[in-house]
Amino acid sequence: MNDSPTGPADQRIAVVTGASSGIGAASARALARAGFHVVAGARRTDRVEVLAREIGGTAVTLDVTSDESVAALARQVPVCHLLVNNAGGALGTDSIAEAKLEDWQWMYDVNVLGTLRATKALLPALLASGDGQVINIGSIAAREPYPGGGGYNVAKHGVAAMTRVLRLELLGQPVRVSEIDPGMVETEFSLVRFGGDLSKADAVYAGTRPLTAVDVADTVSWVAQRPPHVNIDQILMLATDQTSAQVVHRS
Ligand code: NAP
Questions:
Q1: Number of structural domains found in the chain
Q2: High-pLDDT (> 90) share of the chain, %
Q3: Within-domain flag for 2
Q4: pLDDT score for 6
Q5: Does 250 reside within a domain?
Q6: What is the pLDDT, as a whole number, of residue 10?
């Protein structure tokens, strides 16, 4: 057997972007349990290195907003069976009247162009596998605009449109394309959104029971383990306590 730096030749390879935290880290763990060799990428190298040691995977310093960084990732993964485009997030909850262009730019760059950059770079490797799959982590924000959600809504609607176009363009080729749209998940997401303000971040989850990163990772792993003739196009998954973007039961 020819072993590569990413693992034994007969092991399926999964790349997870944004694997240093939350849904990405949990997905890396779930996919490793499912038998994948996981290439875990994020900007915080120390975190992905710890994770890679834990799951027997490969850590990669990755910034999905950088052409060079994504190209370096692609060079390490000549054959890839699964790409989980998870890196992303939101900044702020300003109205459009008060919108900060730099926040919108960041959200577009990481969520939309980051997903595009990683997908484009790894598509040859996904095709080379003969049974590739792309799972994009969208959001309820991709389906439902809400006041203060503008920049994030635009970005995740962009991810949803890109996912659908990719699915259409790859029809007949051996790469499946899926989108998982979670509602509220308790991760570092809100801490990032509110610029590190812990009390604002905690308030998002107060009195309610949100999804956990592990809940979403279970779904990623399930989607990834369907047989090659089954394409799960879209999943919207919400906490029982949430029925739409801003309708949440709190006790
Ligand atoms: P999180 O804990 O903040 O994780 C975000 C991840 O994205 C981190 O690992 C971060 O790693 C990575 N990331 C950010 N910018 C990056 C860049 N330029 N290059 C590479 N990686 C980058 O939040 P999360 O909830 O797990 O978010 C994961 C995905 O789920 C995001 O796409 C988010 O929009 C989506 N989502 C979250 C929720 C929610 O309520 N939490 C709901 C729906 C959808 P580094 O900072 O180390 O680079």
A1: 1
A2: 96
A3: no
A4: 63
A5: no
A6: 81
**149 Cβ below 6 A of ligand 1:** no
Instruction: Note whether 127 and 175 are within 8 A (CB).
Output: yes
The band of 4, judged by pLDDT with boundaries at 50, 70 and 90, is low
Would you call 49 exposed, middle or buried from its count of C-beta atoms within 10 A (0-12, 13-18, 19+)?
middle
Atom number of ligand 1 nearest to Cα 152: 34
Query: Whose C-alpha lies nearest to ligand 1, atom 23?
Result: 189
Instruction: Take residue 202 and report the two structure tokens written for it.
Output: 């905690």
CATH number at residue 81: 3.40.50.720
In a domain, 251, yes or no: no
- The 10s digit of each residue's pLDDT in 60-101 is 999 999 999 999 999 999 999 999 999 999 999 999 999 999
Query: What is the 231 CA–ligand 1 centroid distance (Å)?
Result: 24
Question: Does residue 4 lie in a domain region?
Answer: no
Substitution candidate for ligand 1 out of 16, 65, 83, 86 with most atoms within 8 A of CB: 86
3-state helix, strand, coil in the chain (%, to 5): 45, 20, 35
- Can you give the residue range of the structural domain that contains 97? 13-245
